[in-house]
Write a structure and sequence with these properties.
alpha/beta, globular, 10 helices, FAD/NAD(P)-binding domain, seven-stranded mixed sheet, five-stranded parallel sheet, Immunoglobulin-like
Length: 425
């Protein structure tokens, strides 16, 4: 039996940042539980740069970014258990975990921070028909093979999906001398950030085929090739457009799924759109004292944003332990409005605010020259002009305390308004 003030499940960027913030807020007894051999999470295999431009105001690789936090954690003396798998948590904030050194552990915490990250969708989730040969990998697995293990999994590559990792791996395979025949995306627009489309695909003259998918994989022992086809507006393959592409490797970059089996075991309320916990402005879930942050809540574009929300969770956990989190009688529900797929946080509990609340949202469709509008009590309380919004690129809104403290109702609506909406009376 172990008793701690704050237990953090996951030692990636979210877990590290939340631990540091909780420590800064005065929490003495903090435990990070990490199932891997090292702290840092997925960042350890992301050897490309582009990390830390907001948090550290310089461009770092993934391992460099992680090491900044790891060094700080070591300085503070925060307890860490590596190679430790959490088997179960419950709403009473009791954790059951296991490792080789301690055996079975029962951990009781005053507050828990969930920071388990996310995992990749596989062939099983998207149901690609065909043979079952070797040579089919998710983009993250291929990234680990090349960057950590020093193994190139193939020489002639087809990539399905234009998510950020998929495009980064298109460049990575090319740099290692492999031939990337093309990146195929079922949607009519790229699925990743514009900077990755330019830097990883266009700059290396790698073909990007939009509105295309793989309809069949062929190969006995090893992948021999795939059949690709254009898709219609309903994303159904158009038979007359099918063609066979020889390759020995198929890389899947078809989306990420927040790791929330543990969240569900604790009866945490879940958002069916994000597949993550419903959280308030302190990143507290529906279970008092259980907080969540990072990609376990919703998938972020940038690790800097993961660290930012993790700090909110760390501060919230410290406030919960000290009894400082005051709740209003009737919480404010945050609702996704026009052309908004989801908004996080989904609920506001605070009575009075002295800091901004940052809202994260994704749109459903690309639009140019728009306004993000926040509506409360039937009035427009906030507006922000944006040149263009795209589903792969997160929209962030910082709402000031002056605005937040004027809200008297129980609902907040966030819209994205196009030019035609502004012309309406």
């Amino acid at each position: 039996m172990i008793e701690v003030d704050v237990a953090i499940i996951g030692g990636g960027p979210a877990g590290l940042a939340s631990a540091m913030k909780a420590c800064e807020e005065g929490v003495k007894d903090i435990l990070i539980i990490e199932r891997g051999m090292e702290l840092g999470g997925i960042l350890l295999q992301c050897i490309h740069d582009g990390f830390g431009t907001f948090i550290f105001e310089e461009t770092l690789t993934g391992p460099e970014y992680a090491q900044r936090y790891i060094d700080e954690v070591k300085k503070t003396g925060i307890n860490v258990k590596l190679n430790t798998m959490v088997l179960e948590i419950d709403s009473a904030k009791r954790i059951i975990a296991v490792n080789q050194e301690d055996g079975l552990l029962e951990i009781e915490a005053k507050a828990i921070i969930l920071s388990m990250g996310c995992r990749e969708r596989t062939r099983a989730q998207i149901l690609i028909p065909g043979d079952r040969p070797s040579g089919i990998y998710t983009a993250g697995v291929a990234q680990r093979y090349i960057n950590i293990e020093g193994v190139i999994p193939g020489k002639k590559v087809v990539i399905l999906g234009s998510g950020d990792i998929g495009m980064i791996m298109a460049r990575r395979f090319t740099l290692e001398g492999a031939e990337v025949e093309g990146v195929y995306e079922v949607m009519s627009n790229p699925g990743g950030l514009t900077r990755n489309v330019v830097q990883c695909v266009e700059d290396y003259e790698i073909p990007l085929h939009l509105s295309h998918t793989i309809t069949n994989i062929r190969g006995r022992r090893r992948v021999e090739g795939v059949t690709v086809a254009k898709v219609d507006s309903e994303m159904r393959p158009i038979k007359d457009t099918e063609r066979f592409v020889p390759c020995d490797t198929v890389i899947l970059s078809v989306g990420l799924i927040p790791e929330n089996e543990l969240s569900k075991s604790a009866d945490v309320g879940m958002d069916p759109i994000t597949n993550g916990p419903i959280v308030d402005e302190q990143m507290q879930t529906s279970v008092p004292g259980i907080f969540a942050c990072g990609n376990v809540v919703h998938v972020h574009d940038l690790v800097d944003d993961v660290s930012k929300v993790a700090e909110v969770a760390g501060k919230g956990a410290a406030g919960y332990i000290d009894g400082k989190l005051k709740k209003r009688r009737s919480p404010i529900k945050v609702r996704a409005g026009r052309n908004v797929k989801y908004v996080v946080p989904q609920i506001i509990h605070g009575e009075k605010f002295d800091e901004d609340i940052r809202f994260y949202l994704r749109v459903k469709e690309i639009e140019k020259s728009v306004k993000t509008v926040v509506l409360a009590d039937g009035e427009r309380i906030f507006e922000k002009k944006i040149k263009i919004v795209k589903p792969p690129e997160m929209v962030k809104l910082d709402i000031s305390p002056d605005i937040l403290n004027r809200i008297t109702g129980d609902e907040l609506i966030i819209d994205v308004e196009g030019e035609e909406d502004e012309e309406k009376p």
